[in-house]
Structures are given as C-alpha cells and as structure tokens.
Write a structure and sequence with these properties.
Length: about 140
C-alpha cells in the first residue's frame, strides 16, 4: 500500500461460540481462518465488494494463500474485534490483512489472505476485471 493512501478497513465484533473451542477451553486454531472469512464478509458488506457482487459480475475469487499467527488465546464467551484491511495491489488479486483484538484490546492473532479472480470458464484473470477496477476507482485506489 502506498503511504499516501488511507487504509480501507472494517471492524466486526464477534463472540466466541461454544462449538469453536477445544477440550482446553480455547478457540481451536482452525477457526481463526473462519474468523478471517467473517472479516472479509463484513468488509464486503460495508464497502460494496461482497461475494455476491463478484459472482454477479461473472467471477469467483478462490484463496490461493493464507497465513495466520497466534499470540494469545480466545475463550468461550469472550468477544473480540476483527479488523480487516484491504491491501491495494496493481495485480489482479484481493489481499486482505486481519488483526483480531480481544476484550482488552490485545492482539490475539494476525494474518493475511490472497485471492485471485477466475472468470466463468475458470480462467485466471491477469488484469483487474472491469467491475473491480471501477470499485478501486470509486474507493480512490
């Protein structure tokens, strides 16, 4: 992201559900990727870039890479915030960064996902699809 760009973010509050915890009483590590998905969905609703918008334009965006680093545990019943940040790129891809903060505003987890655009024939798009470029222009990117 260029330094003169204001980050495009979304913050979503989530409560840890019982079925997300392991026998130790903490959130099982695999659920953090689901929390990233919650962040992406909230981001899309807030900023007009939902999966349904993408699908309506004739594209899908599979994840090709995900990273996740854990710092502190989350426990059943706790609430936490997912801060999802769009990372601007000239490449035809969606890059999101995530930070999860517990009730004490301490960083619990951070990560990133990268998605690419496939057209209706499952061909990889090497250039930004028109609808995505229009969204970026509207967002000042």
């Amino acid at each position: 992201m260029q330094s003169n760009e204001k980050p495009i973010q979304c913050t979503e509050e989530v409560r840890v559900r019982f079925n997300e915890t392991d026998p130790l009483g903490i959130v099982w590590h695999g659920h953090y990727i689901v929390y990233f998905e919650d962040g992406r969905e909230a981001f899309g609703r807030q900023h007009g870039l939902t999966y349904l918008d993408i699908q309506k334009a004739g594209f899908v965006t599979p994840i090709i890479k995900s990273t996740c680093e854990h710092f502190l545990p989350l426990k059943y019943g706790e609430t936490f915030n997912i801060v999802t940040t769009f990372v601007n790129s000239t490449a035809a891809k969606l890059i999101y960064r995530y930070e999860l903060f517990n009730q004490d505003n301490k960083l619990v987890c951070s990560g990133e996902t990268i998605q690419v655009f496939l057209d209706s024939d499952n061909n990889l798009c090497l250039y930004n699809p028109e609808f995505f470029q229009a969204w970026k222009d509207k967002m000042g990117l």
